[in-house]
Amino acid sequence: MESLRELYRIGIGPSSSHTMGPQAAAQIYLQRHPEARAFDVTLYGSLAATGKGHMTDVAILGVLEPQGPVTLHWEPRTFLPFHPNGMKFAVLQADGTLSDPWTVYSIGGGALSEGEGKPTPVPSGSSSHPAHPVSSPGVVFDGHTRGYAPTAPSGSSSHPAHPVSSPGVVFDGHTRGYAPTATANVSPAPLYDLNTMEDIIAWCQQSGRTFWEYVERCEGPAIWDYLREVWQVMQEAVERGINHEGVLPGPLGLQRKAPVYYVKAKGYKSNLQSDGLVYAYALAVSEENASGGRIVTAPTCGSCGVLPAVLYHLSRNHTFSEERILHALATAGLIGNLVKHNASISGADVGCQGEVGVACAMASGAACQLFGGSVAQIEYAAEMGLEHHLGMTCDPVCGLVQIPCIERNAFAAARALDANFYASLSDGQHRVSFDRIVRVMKQTGHDLPSLYKETSEGGLAKIHR
Ligand code: SF4
């Protein structure tokens, strides 16, 4: 498994697979072809189906267009064999021919792959562990005037070299846009020697240590500085979100709910207040993500509200120290990493069970650890967090990471606290192991029809078709 730095990516929403990954791919292609004066880019499958709503075009054009014009093609009906989020880049020569084609896949959580058995591409000159792995300092959304139209992608479109343009996206020409940065990080180096929960539990039992200590053993003590930064960004997203009123960008006209939920929840007592605050914190982060705010993938942008909500709530209501929160973040990251390595965290690949379901598993395990759970109880909590999201589809309305995504984060955060409590009442013994549920999730995801995997063609997405 790779470093937790590859799972927890600090960046700009709304989608890790549809914006962070394509942005990194465009950066790599530009680095490989600094002489190119025009580009031809084709988006396939899910990237094409929901790319407009997810701002995929903005992410790619922001990198390539400063170099030269980009002809962009949308092929939502064509699925390349390796993964539903396929992209093909080529240099457009002056005589109209294409050269140096490069096919790459955005496989979830901002990560890239060139396909089965091929190495993960790495932008030359980029640090494998920069302080801000995928942050685009040029991207600034004000939350009020930004927006993007859900124009159904069809056929092909070409865009002029300047300014960066995308239908409905308002740029001010100075600070807006996914600026090409030298910090895109798709480091492939595996750091972990154990890749299943069973093996890691055996290590814990043999050594008398727990999950976060295994993370430290594999990552080294520097991981705590990185997780401290992750925790800082998570807290900032919560605090911005609970104070940020107004309407989210896009044609749905969705009102932000976090500030109201926060104020109302404060008026309740004990466990009702607890549920209400967890809802408010998850809404806050997910609404920040939907409006292009700075968040942490946990494990993806679409599911980025669950873990911060649970940790923020527990840190404030139970006064856990920062050190213990960082340990919980490490354990949550290990849980997410196991799913990423052995199955998938891509909604386009396995549906929302792989995004919000995995986020719930991560938050469940983290909460259980904070409350003193044993290794077995933490594993049980994580298993339940994923098991009870099995089969959950990905069907975002208008291709936006808003409905059902935002509410779904709030429910998953509350469910994570339930999973923790349920596991805490047990002795940790249970029938279905975490490793098994990961395998079942992967198979279930592959058995789902593609219209339920981030194509915005089935389920809830149909209400706006
Ligand atoms: S439905 Fe789930 S997987 Fe799909 S975009 Fe929303 S959060 Fe991501």
Structural summary, described in words:
By secondary structure, the protein is α+β, with helices and mostly antiparallel strands. It folds into 2 domains: 4-159, D-3-phosphoglycerate dehydrogenase, domain 3 (60s Ribosomal Protein L30, Chain: A), CATH 3.30.1330.90; 197-464, Orthogonal Bundle (2-methylcitrate dehydratase PrpD), CATH 1.10.4100. It has 15 helices and 8 strands. The protein has helices at 16-32, 45-54, 56-64, 197-207, 211-219, 223-241, 258-266, 270-290, 306-317, 322-342, 347-350, 356-370, 375-387, 405-425, 434-447, and strands at 10-12, 39-44, 70-75, 86-92, 98-108, 111-113, 156-159, 294-296. The chain starts with 9 loop residues before the first strand and ends in an 18-residue tail after the last helix. Residues 124-187 have low confidence and may be disordered.
